[in-house]
Design goal:
binds adenosine-5'-triphosphate, Carbamate kinase, about 35% helix, alpha/beta, nucleotide-binding, binds the ligand O=c1ccn([C@@H]2O[C@H](COP(=O)(O)O)[C@@H](O)[C@H]2O)c(=O)[nH]1, 8 helices, kinase, nine-stranded mixed β-sheet, pyrimidine biosynthesis, cytoplasm, Uridylate_kinase, globular
């Protein structure tokens, strides 16, 4: 895979990856490392929108399994993503890049409400834009939110920064026989029910012809490496 030719990309950072060695929540050195990588990517002259997951704090399906109403549990999950974005906003600024959090769940005393034109204006000024609250609706995920925002903000690619180094034929964490793909299509990922992203996210990306690059965020400099076409990753295309 060569260097990405895009002026603007969206990076989806897994919430779970922010735990570092901990079992829950935010591990500040890990957040600082990923934030420094985002600041370096921006220094390459690329406009960066970032969606952060919430799996390090709360997932709606887990709340629902314990008896919470699913829609309410999902709202709690969306709030978790706001907390992660606020932590990232500080860490990205500490790494030397201006950053703004925009939330799909309006909370104007905490951060700006999400509006497409606002996000585009911040991106145009070179700010790293952290998109909190996923889609703003229950029954969705931040992967789907990432595909949605990548399309509406005119990003050239969706970079999925996660705990594994690509897309496999099965979950590599539970199936040692899983085989890694170098490249596949969105439709193949949906048809084979590959769980690295949910089907809604793959379908949205397919319909907007959005390439997805899946790679591990465990290595320092992983985001800039992928942007330079140097990293180990799986490319998902139409
Ligand atoms: N076919 C597959 N190929 C690769 N990874 C897979 C596959 N099926 C399931 N996975 C799992 O999907 C995970 C990627 O999801 P990730 O943790 O980034 O998700 P998320 O739900 O978007 O984020 P969060 O942690 O914020 O909830 C990997 O850690 C991996 O274990
Ligand atoms: O559009 C969305 C995005 C997310 N949620 C809820 O947030 C949690 C955390 O997001 P992850 O994608 O799992 O990291 C998710 O489990 C949902 O409960 C949502 O409702 N709508």
């Amino acid at each position: 895979m060569g260097a990405l030719p895009h002026k603007r990309v969206l990076v989806k950072v897994s919430g779970e990856a922010l735990m570092g060695p901990e079992a829950f929540g935010l591990h500040p050195p890990t957040v600082a490392r990923i934030a420094a990588d985002l600041a370096s990517a921006r220094a390459l002259g690329i406009e960066l929108a970032v969606v952060v997951g919430g799996g390090n704090i709360f997932r709606g399906v887990q709340g629902a399994a314990k008896g919470l109403d699913r829609a309410c549990a999902d709202q709690m999950g969306m709030l978790a993503t706001v907390m992660n974005c606020l932590a990232f906003e500080q860490a990205v600024e500490a790494a030397g890049a201006p950053a703004r959090t925009l939330s799909a769940v309006a909370m104007p005393t905490v951060c700006e409400p999400y509006a497409r034109q606002k996000a585009l204006a911040h991106l145009g000024k070179g700010r790293v834009v952290l998109l909190a609250g996923g889609t703003g609706n229950p029954f969705f995920t931040t992967d789907t939110g990432a595909a949605l925002r990548a399309a509406e903000l005119g990003c050239g690619a969706l970079l999925k920064a996660t705990n594994v180094d690509g897309v496999y034929s099965a979950d590599p964490k539970t199936d040692p026989a899983a085989v890694r793909y170098e490249r596949l299509t969105h439709s193949e990922a949906i048809d084979r029910r590959l769980g690295v992203m949910d089907a809604a996210a793959f379908a949205l990306a397919r319909d907007s012809r959005m390439p997805i690059i899946v790679f591990s965020i465990q290595e320092p400099g992983a985001i800039t490496a992928v942007l330079r076409g140097e990293g180990r990753a799986t490319l998902v295309t139409a």
